[in-house]
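User: hey, got a sec? need Peroxisome proliferator-activated receptor beta folded
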Amino acid sequence: MDGIQSAASGIKSEDLGELGAAAVRDMGGICLDNGDSSPYGERRPGGPGSGQTPDPKEAGKGASLSELGSEEDGKGSGGADGMGLEASPEGLGWDMGSQNGDKPEEDRLEQSTNSYSTPGVDSPAPSSSYTDLSQTSSPSLSDQLLLGREDTTGAGINVECRICGDKASGLHYGVHACEGCKGFFRRTIKMKLEYERCERNCPIQKKSRNKCQYCRFQKCLALGMSHDAIRYGRMPEAEKRKLVAGLLARDTGVQSPGGSDLKSLAKQVNNAYQKNLNMTKKKARSILTGKNSSNPPFVIHDMDSLWQAENGLVWNQLINGAPTNKEIGVHVFYRCQCTTVETVRELTEFAKNIPSFVDLFLNDQVTLLKYGVHEAIFSMLPSLMNKDGLLVANGKGFVTREFLRSLRKPFSEIMEPKFEFAVKFNSLELDDSDLALFVAAIILCGDRPGLMNVKQVEEMQDNILQALDQHLQTSHPDSPYLFPKLLQKMADLRQLVTENAQLVQKIKKTESETSLHPLLQEIYKDMY
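Assistant: Yep! Here you go:
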């Protein structure tokens, strides 16, 4: 793509450190709003819709995918085939598309009584130049799961506290519990309280839960409430092997459905994947290999090309004049979170179409998505990557790996582990039908903390794993060890999510102006 142009800019590389947070956008890349709303106020001169045009003196030469290469050829030149046309950032369409705030009021979901997220608040923008993303109005996971159902009064909605039988408010310390028992357990642990020993094994009920604190605390422990159980820690190799061995044992020890049933299940899951996921691997690889030559991606490889992309389509809501380092970083981090939310929405719709998923307790559906979406996201991200970079903006842009490495810490640390994982994962040469079953198996993990019906979830995953095994034998007959390799990747993905959660925590602590979207607060809550 020798004709791809990039424009020069005086911005330094550390100004856009948060672009590294693009790692969280897996299907469809970074989708940045090019509407009229702005977290900063007025439009920047020269931005889209500003009535001004960028200074032509700023124009300079860009990079091409032919220089960067593609993963398929292994020689660094295959990506250029058929991609010699000029690519312009104008009209790249980095729209958010379906954010809750853009919908008519009547289309917005009200917070359900069983919502796990902090209720969103429609409030005026704060007086400072930053948007507090934590106050964004957004449907929770349970809201999204209930969307489109005719009957939302099923038994799965009103889940009882496992300690006292009161109405559970969410998953707390690894157990579905009410606010009272959650607070009791938190105070006991935090203040290191010791209660007078009781040998009567007192019944703990809603009206009598405060009578015997010793028995109440013992019941909390017996049911699995633990400050450590809800925290992600580094997964030892022995635990990884145990996880893989358990999955293999279950796969061989459970009565297998008939072959035709497994084929039907695989077809249903694949159809759900194709229907609900915006950027499939087939579409992404056609762009990365140059087969989609009519509209090659615009390459962002340095600050100059990034600035042209910004002028052409991306950050048109920056403040009037040169933005400060933090304002650009917070803005990009803000937009990357929005795209993560959209990916979670896609995965939620996909999960709802997995056979029998909606038959689970609602709280089990929420738990499976809460703990599984990031593993699923990171398993789909390699589809958008080669060894040199990743597609963004629904395939209309390509951000180079070297550029992401050059960003300031901690944002330069987000992407690199995903690239390292992607290189190995892509070597397995999976297609979309393989990935559909793999992602479904990730979501249906029966060892998630706080599941109410573990047996039902495990049986569902067993069926998915058997369908995956059979499908791989047909689609990859020359790779007899592909199935156990994928089970190992499930363990690797857990470690990748652990490290990512720790990095998000670090960003929250060190970047004071950042805030988390309510849906991401819900997902990350109790994870660290």
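Quick note: The radius of gyration is 24 Å. Let me know if you need anything else on Peroxisome proliferator-activated receptor beta.
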